[in-house]
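Board notes (copied after class):
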Amino acid sequence: MHTERRRRTIFELMREYIDDLDRFAEELIESTALIERPSWDTEAYTLEPLHNIFITPDEAMVTVDLPYTEPQAIKVKAISEDQIEITAKMRRKVCFHDFGITHRKGEFSSFRCQTRIPVPVDTKRMKTKFKRGILEVRLPRKKGYKIKGRIGASHA
């Protein structure tokens, strides 16, 4: 029994080629999302401090490590409903050499970070506390917000 093989049209070949390109682009985007960017900006003389976000049922708490800073040198501002920016001047400048890095040049005089809060918060009621080089920013969670999408929809 002889089976005849059907030849693909140019349009089918082009569709496969485009599908392969789409898959490649998605994989590339996913892989570059994991690439870390530098935690410094030598043009603005800033370092990005270590920071963490804790979410509780009542609030979102952001902790930021700000060594070499004075409380009066720290500024916290809401950029949008879900993002805050923290800047702080350092008491003294630090350079790459202080970290044991000898193949780069540059010095830093302040900290700067922007962080997105993953839950709806009330930025107008934000409270801050600074103790032993750690800044704590508390943002109360919004009450009564609507979640987009259909909840409890059944598929029959």
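Comment from the instructor: Residues 150-156 have pLDDT under 50 and may be disordered. Strands lie at 40-41, 46-47, 51-55, 59-65, 69-80, 83-95, 107-116, 127-131, 134-140.
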